[in-house]
Amino acid sequence: MIYITQFIYIKEGQEKAFDDFEAVAIPIISRYNGRLLLRIRPQEEAFIESGIDKPYEIHLVEFDSEQDFKNFTHDEERKKVLYLKDRSIRLSWLIQGTKI
Asked: pTM of the entire structure?
């Protein structure tokens, strides 16, 4: 089992393009033995302390294996909407880990 945490920073005014990308990409996760565990859009008051820019969204996803995650990233349907991701996301941090 692997866990992917993603901090997502979007370009100002591109919320709709981001939501359109997510509407396609998120359901695809389950095709590859993955589960979206959390999708958080934190509000300003949720931050107690921060040493980095505050992300627009935070995702936590688990996959049964690293190969499942790689297969998800190469999904043909997802690839067709990557232009929406490119249009809307300014920066994202992807942190891969395991449950301990």
From this structure: 0.89
